[in-house]
Amino acid sequence: MSEEVTHELTTDEVQHIAALTRLGLSDDEVDMMRGQLSRILRVFESLQQVDTEGVEPTGHTTEVRTVLRDDEAAESLQRESILENAPDSEAGYVRVRPILG
Amino acid sequence: MLLSSGEVSSVELTEAVLARVDQVEPRINSYITVTRERAVVAAAAADEARSAGNASGPLAGIPIMVKDNLSTEGVPTTAGSKMLLQYTPPYDAHVVEQLRAGGAVIIGKGNLDEFAMGSSTEHSAFGATHNPWDLDRVPGGSSGGPAAGVAASECFISLGSDTGGSIRQPAALCGIVGMKPTYGLVSRYGLIAFGSSLDQVGPFARDVRDSADTLSVISGHDKRDSTSLDAPGQDFSKSLTGDISGMKLGVPREYLVDGMEPGVKAAFEKSLETLEGLGATLEEVSLPLTDQALAVYYIIAPSEASANLARYDGFKYGNAVNDVPTAWDVMDQTREQGFGPEVKRRILIGAYALSAGYYDAYYKKAQQVRTLIRQEFAQTFEKFDALVTPTSPTVAFKSGEKMDDPVAMYLSDVCTIPVNIAGLPAISVPGGMSEGLPVGLQFIGPQMGDGTVLRVAHAYEQATEWHKLKPGI
Fold it and tell me: What domains does chain B contain, in order, with CATH numbers?
């Protein structure tokens, strides 16, 4: 069993994953998540007992195939109806806050 | 039924259901949105079609609830999350289109654990749903609203989604029928995605016949879902022969888990006797990898969720925190404020399992064990027509009991999760009572064996009275 699989998450690691997923977390939440996620990771340890040497991974349970369609223009949703849900829009586009702050 | 004979109109039926909603909803909370006016209009249209001789199919004029992670054009669709408080889809999910085309009357949108993540419907931004059999207990989850709604007669039929048991476990805890079809049989177009390789839409109903009729309406190929099976539509009511003599049913011993309540086990053993009495051959079987299913699921489902929920960025739709300096702050704060704790847990665990250095040990390993679990089922189905198991190890548990212990909550789905991992069809039917609360019985079939599980479930139902029991509310 590799060491990574059994270790307890650190506060730094929780903050790192939170940053990767753009999830703001309060200090209390980081602390709570650290304990709970470590406990969930312990549930995963049992998998190491299963011999998976040479076993192909399953991403999907149905036959994996590429679905193609003819390259022809077709009806789609109207731009206005989609933009109605956008928190901010202008001139037919979604408007966002500056990327560079 | 009454509608086709003209004894009752759809408008009368719909108004009776709406009155029932008014009466019990303050105690149950199975709906997030009730679309009263739209329902009456749809019911009047169904009546008109019938009197013109155009009654279309088994669901015409029937009041139905759909889980609030199924997109409904012009009607708010929240997925039980603050994140989507302000979201109104500009289109219908495929299954909603199918219901409308079949003349069904949509009464409203059912409560759920946020983004369908949970087993108790307590993780909803719109308050918990309560079990009609005992208001201090949970209805199960994540489709607790659709399950409680049918059990409390707030609709005749409902649609839920099942990623790890989210239809079958609440059906069991509420004493009704709930079915998860073969993966790909029902289009996921317009279903708000959680774990895309596991998610499947399916029906809740009082009995197996209504479940079969609903599945016939919502299933079939849809080119907008690339995983939709290219199979012709079927009339599943034809599977309900009432005869299972000579069928071989396997009883996997690993499903009788530690922590299973004695009352659940006793009800299960009684059900096995009933099935033998119907002429089925029962044999104990071992599926040793069942013990790994929980770990596989809680790696794969959160991994897929962490990717699927990346779309909630505060730009395109939904609630947004916009009065901040940069786009990065919009994302951080929108997601911090919009997601509840269980969703955050799953996003974090999924991102961790996918992250550099851990991918092989967690995500890839889980996908490899998934292959082995599929093979184990496939080998078992060479010998058996279907498997029979309890649906959940316990009856409905007390509200709040598992909210601080995520792993204890996850164990409620230990008997349903393997089915999603392998993409199989399964159904839960009322299979007894324990301490005054319903116990569920699960039948699992091979891929595309949806008709088989319906057939066995129907024969069992016809031989028992459990599905006729109703809560006192």
Answer: 2-250+384-468 (3.90.1300.10)
